[in-house]
Amino acid sequence: MPSPALLSARLPARLPAQPSAPQPTLPPAARQVLRWLRPAALTLAASLAPVMAAHAAKWFAWEAVEMPAATGASCGNGTPYRFFVNRTPFTSKTVVVYEGGGACWDQAACKGGTLLDAANPEGIPANYMADINKMAKLGLVTPFTARIHPLQAVQTQSWNIVYVPYCTGDVHTGNQVNVYTDADPAQPLTYFHRGDKNGRALAAWLKANLPRPEHLLVTGFSAGGVGSTAQYPTLRTALNPRRMALLADSGPLMIAPRTGTPQQYPSLPLHNKIRSTWGLDGADGILARLQAQFPGVVQNTDDLGLVGTALAKVYPQDRLGFAVFQEDAIFSAFSYQKFFPDITAGNPGDDERKARLNVRWRQDIDRWIAALAPSANVGWYLPNRRDVNDSHCLTIISFAGTGIREASLKDVGVFVDNLLATQGPVLRAFEQDRTAQPSPLDLHWLITKFVGSLI
User: Fold this and answer.
1) More confident residue, 42 or 349
2) Burial of residue 405, with CB atoms counted within 10 A of its CB: 0-12 exposed, 13-18 middle, 19 or more buried
3) Global confidence as pTM
4) Contact of 81 with 67, CB cutoff 8 Å
5) How do strand 62-66 and strand 160-164 relate by DSSP bridges?
6) According to a count of CB atoms within 10 Å of the terminal CB, is the N or C end of the chain lower?
7) How many CB atoms lie within 10 A of CB 404?
8) Which residues make Cβ contacts (< 8 Å) with residue 333, sequence separation at least 6?
9) How confident is the model over 357-367, as pLDDT tens digits?
10) What pLDDT is stored for residue 43 in this prediction?
11) What is the tens place of the pLDDT at every residue in 260-285?
């Protein structure tokens, strides 16, 4: 290797001067404009800095939003209602997720305690999203509420995320205060079925605090599936997104006209009960509000199952999707078990009880799909079952085990992507094979099944 002295000897003592490139010059008028604008730009930057810093602290983190009492919003026990927002500065696209849980129309169920009873009877604390014991599970209960989910990717994970907890026992639809005494007359329970009030307060806040969405997906699981359907027009009217879609997971509003019979329409006793108990037919109830908002479309409120078809007529440009398992043993129990004594007659085993539920469930499903079918912008995704949560909810934990093999559909994620597409027909898939199961070698499915057994 040459020595440093030798190298220096080979270099010229001075490099020849290089001609400099001509420097661009601005016309005098342009320079004067910049001199004028510079102070204003500095002032604007100084004024925006605190705002940007304040929002930056809220980006990619759960922000608790507490609704003032003046909005009428509250949880069932009268405590303040809260929802949670996880913002991003990179897009106006937004997903709104309605939480699931049971429901109540009596004192015992409104106190909570079982899977079918009211969820979060103690209310929604400000640290709800940070508590692994709450239904949100740190935002991991569904891939729609996680920026990075350990088991499932979905395109909305890069959007603004709004999580709507459930604490009113009325599948996000009620507007009535009841005093329940049936279980313990000596200690009456005042319960606020304020789901619809909460939904309206939510929509107003989002309108005032988020940009108009380029694309809005409204979704929810279980009771949240019902809530996402019922609150869809409230959000659409308030936020006026450029594009919008619905994915109602495992919260079907079955066809049940009040002129029918429970034998014809198994969900009719349930619908009659909640209409009166939750104030759905009241002067300020959700049905009266929808009828006033869409008088030419929502004419017959005697059948709650027609809400889906009404949405399709009101918003023909939107893509509306419904997903449910054909062997869902939880929503069917919620729908029928308290109203049909034959389901539990003779103390049947669990398998026999589920079989009795499923007869009515499939009867309801057939009528429901037939009612939705004429609406070209409505799709559905109905696999037979999966061994997680008694085949209830396709979008909790992960999408594993929700495929329809006979149609070459990997999982419900295909349905999600279809609903978020800009063109093409909405997907309609109904699994015919009742024996199909996920591959026992599918690691994704095995992990999902294991996690499902723990929660």
Assistant:
1) 349
2) middle
3) 0.88
4) yes
5) unpaired
6) N
7) 22
8) 116, 357
9) 999 999 999 99
10) 54
11) 999 999 999 999 999 999 999 999 99
Mean pLDDT in residue range 69-77:
97
Q: Tell how many helices (H) and how many strands (E) occur in the chain.
A: 13, 11
Token match 């023909």: residue?
316
Contact status, residue 377 vs residue 316, Cβ threshold 8 Å: yes
Taking alpha carbons only, the member of 164, 142, 139 closest to residue 153 is 142
* SS3 annotation, 103-169: CCCCHHHHCCCCCCCCCCCCCCCCCHHHCCCCCCHHHCCCHHHCCCCCCCCCHHHHCEEEEECCCCC
* Angle, helices 307-314/232-239, rounded to nearest 10 degrees: 20
* % of the chain with per-residue pLDDT over 90: 82
Alpha-carbon Rg for the chain in angstroms: 28
Of the pLDDT bands very low, low, confident and very high (cuts 50, 70, 90), residue 294 is confident
Predicted confidence (pLDDT) per residue in 24-54, tens digit: 555 665 555 446 556 654 554 454 444 444 5
Q: Which of 134, 152, 136, 96 is nearest to 402 (CA)?
A: 152
User: Token pair of 240, please?
Assistant: 């006026």
How far apart are the C-alpha atoms of 184 and 182, rounded to whole Å?
A: 6
For the chain, give the number of residues: 455
Task: Tell me how far apart the alpha carbons of residues 305 and 345 are, in angstroms, rounded to a whole number.
Answer: 28
Greater model confidence, 31 or 158:
158
Other Cβ atoms closer than 10 A to 421: 13
Residue 212: DSSP 8-state? P
Residue 65 CA to residue 203 CA, distance in Å, equals 12
Q: Is residue 315 classed as helix, strand or coil in its secondary structure?
A: coil
Here the tokens at position 300 are 């017959």
Q: Which residues contact residue 417 at a Cβ distance below 8 angstroms, ignoring those fewer than 6 apart? A: 155
SS (H, E, C) 55-80: HHCCECCEEEEECCHHHCCCCCCCCC
Average pLDDT for 142-170: 97
